[in-house]
Write a structure and sequence with these properties.
The chain is of the alpha+beta class and 105 residues long. It has helices at residues 2-11, 15-19, 58-78, 81-86, 88-104; strands at 23-26, 33-35, 39-41, 47-48, 53-56.
Length: 105
Amino acid sequence: TLALSTVPHVWSVLFPVFFSSYSLEFLTVHESELRFPISETKPCTEMDTANNTVCINSDDLGRLIGMTIMFCIVIPITVSKTFRRFRYSLAWKLHVLMGFLYTVD
């Protein structure tokens, strides 16, 4: 159930691009500012309604890719009966690692 709410929440930043006529603006690391703890701040607002643009940076892109892989590929594999039957300790360690990475993020 966590994946059912987390994946749409992470992808919701792109809903205006998918469902409206907003354009997507991607900022490189040089255009944004790195701050502790290794996250970026944007020089623009995330959604500019005046210009119909959505602004994302590499931090957002990493979260989109990472959470999608975590919840749609890795976690379903770790809870599958076939994988747990043959590699139980690896499935358990991978599942705990994914939980830790989710908590840190």
